[in-house]
Design brief:
By secondary structure, the chain is of the alpha+beta class. Helix content is 36%, strand content 12%.
Length: 345
Amino acid sequence: MRSLTKCICVMLLWGLSFTGTSAQNLSRGMSGDAVTALQTALAGAGYFALTADGAYGSATVKAVSLFQSDKGLSVTGVADDDTQEAIRRSVGKGYRPGGGVVMAEGNQGDLVAEYQRKLQNAGYLSGAADGIYGPDMAEAVKRLQREQGIPVSGVIDEETLAWLSSVGQNNNRTPVPRGDIMMPGSSGGQVAKLQNLLLLHGYNPGTADGIYGAATADAVRMLQERYGLRETGNADAQVWNVLRGAPEFSGNYRKSLVMRATAYTPYDPGNTGYTAGGSLAGKGHVAVDPSVIPLGSMVFIQGYGYAIADDIGGSVTGRVIDVGVDSQEQAYQWGNREVQVYVVS
């Protein structure tokens, strides 16, 4: 958060640095207090995320260019009178989508090489990690941003940096293969997996049919809203990172039951691969006795997660619930246990 005090300081610094009726045009290669003031103001306006060092380099050029483009000014990367005045007026009044510029085409060094390796690991960059932020890296960053729902600029801004910084950490925020980036119009087994995982986390995508329609997009948007992500409706890496974690119980329910829980897979003998409700079976679906839990109910099962009660079975009678899993190994791991079941809706 940028405080009012910081904004006032930025404006005072700006005023002290530029006196008279016309400010000095600032451009690449210049340095000094005037550039420091420009960078500080750009940070206050939400376009610069580095320490103001007084050196007008590639990141400053790109921050100025993005600001000019967003404000309808001539895009030159040079901070002329009009640009400087517009930046001054924008301090504390908003924040660039994607955040301030951290690194841009033209930057060089070990840190560039580090993020090139992260782009390689995520499948976005095929060239060498040579420490030079050139056109190939800029295009790789644009592909990442396009597929992850980040504003497309070709620069590493704060949101892009956050995504890259998560790659390889021990917090389940692993990069998603590019073929797993899904959006309305996608279809197939991976979409069905997405739909079942959404159910497991309490976001109902409608029928789990392997078709990415409006209901699936709405469920993804609900998840994104819950976790403070960009509400694109597309299943990007951040969505998959949430879905790979353990489901979180909201605590809301109508009634609770102690039940005996078993597990089944879509591949068990006699199974068609579909639930009685017509969805592709797997995680997020459970079989129940309709006299105990009405079909269509949303439930939360201790140690499992959310599920839709849309299946039945000959051995599922009384207070027995059969949870859907994706493999025989998972079914064996689940076994036969007593669980608390919360009927949510």
